[in-house]
Specification:
The chain is of the alpha+beta class. Helix content is 52%, strand content 12%. It contains four helices and six strands. The strands form two sheets. It has a four-stranded antiparallel β-sheet with strand order 1-4-3-5. The radius of gyration is 28 Å and the shape is rod-shaped.
């Protein structure tokens, strides 16, 4: 067997190739990491729309709902009884234009997305809920 020595030029070329490939791998990993951080950033910015009171209000909303007080926005699940939400019996409630299962009898802000609730009739709220796959009593 012959033991060939590589020329200095070949060694430098191989080193440059290895460095170049390492750099490409680094850029790819950095790009993926940046994309994941950017995706997380959208959620974080979305959540930042809600102030501390709204975040804390989520737990309070459950207590209010249990008391039968629908003055603060609540995220409803399961079969939704719209008439029970209409405390003042005026035939209108407030509903989030994006999260249709966020309902209240008073004006407010959606604790999920931070949007202002829109006043709608019970029939319009029912229509919106059914159209988006929610069950209504």
């Amino acid at each position: 067997m012959s033991n060939k020595m590589q020329s200095p030029f070949t060694v430098k070329t191989n080193t440059v190739k290895i460095l170049f490939l390492s750099f490409i791998v680094f850029l790819t990993a950095a790009s993926l990491s940046y994309a994941q951080d950017a995706a997380k950033g959208k959620t974080t910015q979305h959540e930042m729309k809600m102030d501390k009171n709204m975040k804390m209000g989520k737990k309070g909303n459950i207590k209010e709902m249990m008391k039968g007080n629908h003055s603060s926005p609540v995220v409803y699940k399961g079969v939704i009884n719209l008439k029970s939400i209409d405390d003042n019996k005026d035939g209108k409630i407030y509903q989030c234009p994006m999260d249709f299962n966020v309902l209240s009898d008073k004006p407010g802000v959606d604790p999920k997305c931070g949007m202002k609730l829109k006043e709608v009739t019970l029939s319009k709220a029912k229509s919106n809920l059914i159209k988006h796959g929610f069950k209504v009593k």
